């Protein structure tokens, strides 16, 4: 199986590049942000609880997102592989993902990390907010908090995956096509 973690701060282009990766490599897309937004739209108790945190740019508790990913992995028959988008975001989530995949006799094949300058991140998120209607994409204070939370809680994963020799840094500046060419070149070198 080919299991990719697409990694990077909010606004790095993880969602857009996930679509390109799915089209080319036929992986199953698991975006915890998308799953949470579906729960909010459905008005489930989980969605109501998550919305309060998401509206402030804070992370949803690990056990909730790990449970969601577990459920999706268990309910995906014969996948070629997964692309994890916006997950893991904490070391506890990475450890849980390793365990879940080990239970399926597989592992993370590689982490594709999109490197984008701070000003460009903010610009891209504000632009996306004009169409997405996402309230966390429209308020500069929330956007700044999301990037701060990423720096505090998510960047420790860089060392976690470097220690496993799985971390691949990609220049995330440029056109979508240019960036996808860099990503494909890296994915094609990964062990299947
Ligand atoms: P995203 O769509 O990935 O930008 O996620 C939007 C929001 O959903 C984040 O700011 C968090 O509040 C929440 N979220 C998404 N994925 C996770 C995760 N893996 N762990 C905790 N919270 C998450």
Describe this protein's structure:
With 192 residues, this protein is α/β, with parallel strands linked by helices. It contains nine helices and five strands; from the N terminus they run E-H-E-H-H-H-E-H-E-H-H-H-E-H. The protein has helices at residues 14-25, 32-42, 45-54, 62-74, 91-102, 118-132, 140-154, 156-163, 176-187, and strands at 4-7, 28-31, 82-85, 110-115, 167-171. Strands 2-3-1-4-5 form a five-stranded parallel sheet, sandwiched between helices. The termini are close together. The relative contact order is 0.20. The mean pLDDT is 96.
Question: What sort of overall outline do the alpha carbons produce when their principal axes are compared?
Answer: globular
Number of strands: 5
Mean pLDDT: 96
Uncertain stretches of 5 or more adjacent residues: none
Q: Percent of residues in helical segments?
A: 55-70%
Main β-sheet description: 5 strands, parallel
Order of helices and strands: EHEHHHEHEHHHEH
Strand content: 5-15%
**Tally of contiguous helical segments:** 9
Radius of gyration: 16 Å
Short description:
With 192 residues, the chain is of the alpha/beta class. The chain has helices spanning 14-25, 32-42, 45-54, 62-74, 91-102, 118-132, 140-154, 156-163, 176-187, and strands spanning 4-7, 28-31, 82-85, 110-115, 167-171.
């Amino acid at each position: 199986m080919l299991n990719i973690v697409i990694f990077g701060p909010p606004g790095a282009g993880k969602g857009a590049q996930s679509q390109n990766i799915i089209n080319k490599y036929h992986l199953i897309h698991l975006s915890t942000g998308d799953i949470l937004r579906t729960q909010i739209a459905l008005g489930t108790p989980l969605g109501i609880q998550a919305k309060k945190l998401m509206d402030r740019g804070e992370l949803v508790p690990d056990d909730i997102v790990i449970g969601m990913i577990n459920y999706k992995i268990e309910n995906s028959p014969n996948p070629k592989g997964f692309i994890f988008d916006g997950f893991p975001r904490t070391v506890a989530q990475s450890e849980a993902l390793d365990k879940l995949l080990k239970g399926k006799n597989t592992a993370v094949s590689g982490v594709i990390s999109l490197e984008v300058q701070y000003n460009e991140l903010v610009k891209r998120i504000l632009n996306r907010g004009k169409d997405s209607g996402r309230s966390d994409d429209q308020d500069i204070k929330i956007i700044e908090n999301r990037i701060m939370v990423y720096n505090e809680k998510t960047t420790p994963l860089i060392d976690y995956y470097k220690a496993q020799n799985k971390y691949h840094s990609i220049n995330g500046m440029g056109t979508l096509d240019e960036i996808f060419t860099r990503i494909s070149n890296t994915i094609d070198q990964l062990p299947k």
